[in-house]
Specification:
Layout lengths: L4 E6 L2 E11 L2 E6 L10 E7 L2 E7 L17 E5 L2 E6 L2 E6 L5 E5 L8 E6 L6 E2 L6 E5 L9 E6 L5 E3 L11 E10 L10 E7 L8 E5 L2 E5 L11 E6 L5 E3 L2 E3 L5 E10 L9 E7 L5
Parallel strand pairs: 11-16
Antiparallel strand pairs: 1-2, 2-3, 4-5, 6-9, 7-8, 10-12, 13-14, 13-15, 15-16, 17-18, 18-21, 19-20, 19-22, 22-23
Length: 285
């Protein structure tokens, strides 16, 4: 492809070239040194017992970025090796590895990366949906884009994952998500980022209302939620509900009244509205 760097191991040394367009539909190799480039690197080619040996050395971070490649740490580069054979002055190329190859530059670091969860249900949160998490990592050498990640939910095995990750689980209940970053040397974060949260997609029951003189007491049940954690919304003689306590002491004029109440669990799921009609009698004077 245009601009591709070409390193050639020949018996007399190294040829450092690049692919350039010479006409509307023609291309050819051009030596870097002929276009203000440098011939940096060494090569060795030898045939021994009918077997060819080729070695090429080239700077990874080359100062001649006009034609040469530069590879940061860590990085990956695809290459296509070709073998040229000449018989009676006629030369041809053979692709000796049809699938191509890859040069992988690794950092050599022994320091593991760190992992951070950046979005998703908060620690200890109770949510009415399955939730999606986002995360990132930091490393002493590799940029975040070069890190890989593994996730697991509860006691599952570690498996490869990407950000955003979700749904982490589709089962109601408490769960723990663990995420760890891995660098190019496969050093894994020894202290994975964790988030414990509860999925609750079920609504609580309609409130039960018990009246005792001038007091109304509201109760409701919700699977997996302590009774004291269920909250209520209610109104008297109005359809607009507002937050209210589980015990209501009423000071109402004599006559008929209507109480509307609904239960709300910690995840925000709401019950159907309970409607109770009652009468307040005029006290005997």
């Amino acid at each position: 492809m245009p601009g591709s760097d070409i390193l050639r191991a020949v018996p007399w040394g190294l040829e450092d070239s690049f692919w350039q367009q010479t006409g509307p539909s023609s291309w050819d190799w051009a030596l870097d040194s002929d276009f203000r480039g440098t011939l940096d690197g060494t090569a060795h080619a030898q045939v021994n017992g009918g077997i060819g040996f080729f070695e090429v050395m080239h700077p990874l971070n080359d100062g001649d970025d006009l034609h040469d490649f530069s590879m940061a740490i860590p990085s990956h580069m695809q290459y296509v090796p070709l073998f040229q054979h000449c018989v009676a002055g006629s030369c041809a190329f053979t692709n000796i590895t049809p699938a191509g190859g890859k040069v992988v530059v690794v950092s050599g670091t022994h320091l593991p990366p760190q992992t951070t969860i950046t979005a998703g249900p908060a620690e200890g949160a109770q949510v009415p949906d399955y939730g999606t998490f986002e995360f990132t990592g930091t490393d002493d050498v590799a940029p975040p884009s070069e890190l890989e990640y593994e996730c697991k939910v509860d006691d599952e095995e570690w498996s490869s994952c990407d950000s955003p990750f979700g749904p982490a689980s589709t089962v109601d209940g408490w769960h723990t998500l663990s995420i760890r970053a891995l660098d190019d040397m496969l050093n894994a974060d020894p202290t994975p980022a964790q988030r414990r949260w509860r999925i609750d997609t079920q609504s609580p029951s309609k409130p039960q209302v018990v009246r005792k003189r001038k007091t109304l007491r509201l109760t409701a049940t919700d699977r997996g939620t302590p009774s004291g954690s269920v909250r209520f919304k209610c109104s008297v003689d109005s359809k607009r509900l507002h937050v209210c306590a589980s015990r209501l002491r009423l000071r109402l004029p004599a006559g008929r009244h209507v109480l509307r109440a609904r239960a709300v669990d910690p995840a925000g799921n709401e019950s159907d509205v309970k409607i109770v009609r009652f009468a307040v009698r005029r006290s005997k004077g």
